[in-house]
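Consider a concrete sample entry:
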Amino acid sequence: MTLGPEAMSSDLSVVDGDASVVSGEAVPMGAAATLAAMVGLTWGPSTIAIMGLGVFIRPLQADFGWTRAQVALVATVINLVVVVMSPIQGVLIDRFGSRRVVIPSLFIFSTGLMLLYLLPPKIDVFYLSWGMLVAVSVGLLPASFLRVVSGWFDRRLGLAMGVANSGIGLGNIIVPLVAAYVIAAHGWRMAYVTLGLMVLCIVTPVCLVWLREHEVSSPESGAQKDAREHAKSLSFRLAVRGFPFWVLMTAFFLLGLVNTALITQQVPMLIDAGVTPQKAAFVQSMFGVALLVGRLGTGFLLDHIFAPIVMIVVALGAALACLIYSAGPSGGIVWLPAALIGLVVGAEFDVLGYTIKRYFGVAAFGKIYGLIFAIFQLGAALGAAAFALAHDAYGSYAMGLYGAALALILACLTFASLPGYPVALPSATAQPSARSS
């Protein structure tokens, strides 16, 4: 096994080569699609439902008398819904294309957010509302946007993925600030209405105009184009029989165990360590900056360094962060673990989207991404619950942090077992006996 740049194949390319060098026309079209994907991820369910949840917890507690744990449990509900819906999303975008799934989902999601203005003081309705909203706006999960980007770029695929995925980092910074401002001025109900209006009035027009999938300008028939594109891709059936697929499934489940637990519990961990609530909140915002840097930096590095190496480095950094947190950090060192965790969270989905195209091509991108993303979210739901239970059982976060560090180290070992990228892929229509790697 080769774990170096020499393992990277330069022979894998989209139809007619890299969209960034084919023609002057392709450059702005691919860039516009990538920026539209970034905007879509900035204001999608991943940011508003999960990363924006923190600013709504205390207002909901004050209005309805719910406990912090009851409000926070909605994150687990959302994660479990994503587990179910991600594979369905993958089937839909592979069959109909991302654009046809994203646009209706934007209208549904924006309307649903605004309807939360009417939320009654019933916790089961709160859970049901968010669960249904994420389910029916399934097209806004990351796979739809990354599938569009993967069709436009090859040699600059990593950077393009990083730019698109940076939307989640931007959302982690922008969404809580907007929501907190509106909550302070007009209450949490108007904050949901405001977020819904921003999705409707900003994201929807941008995606309507610029979120377009790559189409080859040539006189050949549609069937010939499809055959040429699929000749560089694996079918879903072949992909799931290959060793790389199961390595990625295992590695991203392990990463999921750590992801949500550390994101949602970072501020309480700091406060328990003696950091003031104000400083803890500021450290959390710096985590968002590190996440954004991780998205863009990882994207750039993936075009030059073998993806497993990039992931191993940032995951080891996050494992170190867990050990620092377990010792009860104070003073200036509190910034270091937050930054290290931000980097690994920023790298995860860049690496996932990039490796899927490199190992399997684009024919079944949605199905493969959707299934692995579902496993990641299952790990996130289990990890968040286990982290909280460990805190209650032992009276501190130390045992949960040791477990998180172990999961990250195991993820590193799993990534290290990935083979080099294939120089060529069998046809997506190859016989089932063909091997994927």
About this structure: The domain at 5-212+231-416 is CATH 1.20.1250.20 (Growth Hormone; Chain: A;). The radius of gyration is 21 Å.
